[in-house]
Design a protein that fits this description.
With 483 residues, the protein is mainly α. The chain has 21 helices and two strands.
């Protein structure tokens, strides 16, 4: 790929799969967004929407996997965009990289903020006198980011071990939650309840409300580019990175559907639980009692913390690679690698500091925080869509060992179509009446990101950034390895 090897290959096939599986994180995703789905379509959209969107995401993952096999680098999306573009390679690479960066920062911030919120919910259940506040949430998020940065600083091997643990935490945790919800409650909803439709969005159109409910699955299935970003630290990356992406999506789809059904059939008072501050937590309390609910809540919190750690790891590698090509302020600083741990330590701390900056407005206003991180999913999926779109336009694409053969363009076409549809949904109003608190700030946040990137591009970047940089011939690059 034209780069000297500075990162050590300590990620095995399972480790590569683990990082995407952990970032997708069905427990974190479903528990964070289940309440929205209860009001935007209800069980019918939560279940059948999950199945339909999972299939669409598999198309996106397959196209990304084919590209990852051809260009297995930490730069991942922005690197492949620069290589696949016919013209204006620097511009395609620039915008893809910044969308990916902002999306990943937003993902780390949102996941850890959600973990802090659930931690406070647990504390309030354990000690009723505790008063949960926005200030406490921000402070807890800052502590979480600090711990995750320390874990990423120490060694890649530690992160790999934690990611392996996280897979079993998620799978065993899901089994415990599902079995508890199936075996303990004395009452379950009838089988036909899966077809129940509810539209409490405030919009009169049931179709529109149901379409919004598809966002629950889309919110969950983000971050599987983590396997792509870890390519330079994965053995046999041309095969293991795409396999990691596909397995993470497929296993998450199956396990997530089981968890979704368990929560739906455990619902007792739909109206009460749908209007609760944390609907899935209220479902656990009503179905199992406060004591059991608290134990299961610990599983959820652990899953969120693992998810945040994997998010930061992926973000760090994107920062490292983007800086290696001179696309970030202080690039020489951010792409340096510790001689002791062989990790991009400075990039780790940038990946911790940026989410903290996004979280700080939550000290005063949760709406302000939501407005900033709403670009997370839109930014990530646009970054996913650019190289897939460019591969779709290319007639002489050179695939790697893992490829889709003659179906490559067809799969890429479906993937691009779904990315366009889902991004439109993410930018539409999601509640009525539209107020400053309910307004969807995703279009504004995205416009701000693109405006800054555009001004910066035309002001200075277009003269110094031409896309991925080659450090020399294969022999010259090999001589630089691990220096």
């Amino acid at each position: 790929m034209g780069y000297p090897r500075k990162l050590t290959r300590r990620f095995r096939a399972f480790d590569n799969f683990a990082i995407s599986f952990t970032i997708i994180n069905i427990i974190s995703g479903i528990f964070s967004s289940f309440g929205f789905g209860m009001n935007a379509g209800g069980p019918s959209i939560l279940v059948f929407g999950w199945i339909g969107v999972s299939v669409m995401v598999l198309f996106v993952g397959a196209s990304m996997g084919e590209i990852a096999s051809a260009y297995p680098t930490s730069g991942a999306l922005y690197f492949s965009a620069g290589k696949l573009a016919k013209r204006h390679r620097g511009a395609w690479s620039w915008y893809t990289g910044w969308l990916n960066f902002v999306g990943q920062v937003g993902g780390t911030a949102a996941t850890n903020f959600a973990a802090a919120t659930f931690i406070q919910a647990f504390i309030s259940m354990q000690w009723p006198s505790y008063q949960a506040t926005a200030q406490h949430t921000v402070a807890i998020t800052a502590v979480i980011l600090l711990i995750q940065a320390l874990a990423n600083t120490y060694t890649v091997q530690l992160v790999a071990v934690l990611n392996r643990i996280s897979v079993w935490w998620l799978l065993i945790g899901m089994v415990i939650i599902v079995l508890t919800l199936v075996l303990i409650p004395t009452h379950h909803q009838p089988a036909s309840f899966v077809t129940h439709f509810a539209n409490n969005t405030g919009f009169t159109s049931g179709l529109y409300g149901g379409m919004l409910g598809l966002l629950v699955t889309s919110w969950t299935f983000t971050g599987f580019d983590g396997s792509f970003h870890m390519s330079e630290e994965t053995v046999q990356a041309t095969v293991n990175a795409p396999r990691g992406i596909m397995r993470a999506i497929a296993y998450s789809a199956i396990a997530g559907l089981i968890l979704m059904l368990a929560l739906i059939y455990a619902i007792r008072d739909y109206a009460h639980e749908a209007s609760a501050t944390a609907p899935p937590v209220q479902i656990l309390i009503d179905a199992l009692g406060a004591g059991t609910a608290k134990l299961l809540l610990l599983i959820v919190i652990g899953a969120m913390l693992f998810c945040g750690l994997a998010n930061m790891t992926s973000n760090t590698r994107q920062i490292f690679a983007f800086s290696r090509d001179g696309a970030m302020p202080g690039s020489r600083w951010w792409h340096s690698v510790s001689s002791r741990t062989r990790t991009p330590v400075k990039a780790v701390w940038l990946a911790a500091a940026c989410p903290l900056v996004l979280v700080i407005p939550g000290w005063w206003s949760h709406t302000a925080f939501t407005a900033i991180v709403s670009v997370n999913v839109v930014g990530l999926f646009l970054a996913y869509g650019v190289p897939i779109f460019l591969r779709l336009r290319l007639n002489d694409f050179q695939p790697g060992p893992w490829n889709l053969g003659r179906y490559g363009k067809l799969v890429a076409g479906v993937a691009v179509a779904w990315i366009v549809i889902s991004n439109v949904l993410f930018m539409l109003p999601q509640a009525s009446p539209i107020t400053p608190a309910s307004f969807n700030y995703a279009p504004i946040a995205l416009a701000v990101v693109l405006l800054i990137a555009t001004v910066w591009w035309f002001a200075t970047a277009r003269r110094r950034f031409q896309g991925p940089v080659s450090y020399g011939s294969p022999d010259e690059v090999a001589a630089m390895d691990l220096i």
